[in-house]
Amino acid sequence: MKVLFISSKRPSFDIVPFIKSQGESLKQNGVDLEYFIIPSGGLTGYIKAIFRLRKYLNKHQCDLIHAHYSYCGWVAVLTFTKLPIVVSFMGSDVYGSEGLKGNKKLRRRVDIAIARMLQPYVQAIIVKSQQLFDHLRSKEKAEIVPNGVDFKKFQPRDKREIRKKLGVSTEKKVVLFLGHPTYTIKNFALLKAAENVAKDSSWEVLNPYPTDPDNVPLYINSADVLVLASVLEGSPNVIKEAMASNCPIVSTDVGDVREIIGNTEGCYFTSFEPEDMAQKIKLALEFGKETTGRKDVEHLEINTIAKKIIGIYNRVLQPTPVYQ
């Protein structure tokens, strides 16, 4: 099976790490896979990519196209290829504009409309959570398949040793925030407000953004608690990565976080009130030990997820398509 992954370049990455991780796991499970990267965004960049992709498909044999995000899906559709197209929606291209204002809210509404218009033209849709599934127009084509987590990369390690390697304080407890500090949806301001409310000198907030993806497992293992404060999410990978590392978590109730965390002790949900977040961080720090997160997310191990995706590919490639 020859599959072409389509993804757009991001400022810090040629291929977004979780998309690259998924692609490599598919390769390890027998899929012959190549990457087609759209180097620049904006309308002009995507239009140019349509013509580039046509040339690519004329020269290279493929069985199936798997596009990531709706704009990449449109690039595939507008080549008018006869190949089946699978699209993965990631969250921001499907869910609403709750919590956003002005131009950002308008942009999100445009993104949602573009994703809805795309759905009739693809053969299968992958979403990361039930919340995203509920927003779909073409539910009959869709399956919920969260991103997998690499258990070899994300696993518990010695906290003190990792902190020395990173140059992180070994004297204070560490509250880790891995999101973009100025991106409104990631809501770093809530954590800073909670820190001001707590007035607890025994812990400090660590926000190493941006950092090399290879450092993410180290930072998670350096932390006493990982905080996700987002206003909106689809299926945040950092929660699964923290679970696989047995790291306590404090999170807002967004995306599929509740499904992932379940009843894992040492993991807590917070409202958007700084006082509540400060209290939940206090509880997580008092928990003071590893969680059972790794055991609780065994079903999200990356090769298990890869097999589910391959199952979708096989159904799409059947002589009589499942999806009309």
Automatic annotation (TrEMBL):
Gene3D superfamilies in the record, alphabetically? Glycogen Phosphorylase B (3.40.50.2000)
Its keywords, alphabetically, are: Glycosyltransferase, Transferase
Which one Pfam family would you cite for this protein? Glyco_trans_1_4
**Domain Glycosyltransferase subfamily 4-like N-terminal stretches:** 40-151
| Molecular function GO labels | glycosyltransferase activity
Q: What top-level class of enzyme does the UniProt entry assign?
A: transferase
InterPro entries attached here? Answer: Glyco_trans_4-like_N, Glycosyltransferase_grp1
Q: What is its EC number?
A: 2.4.-.-
Instruction: Tell me where the transmembrane regions lie.
Output: none
Protein name stated in the entry: Glycosyltransferase
Q: Which organism is it from?
A: Splendidivirga corallicola
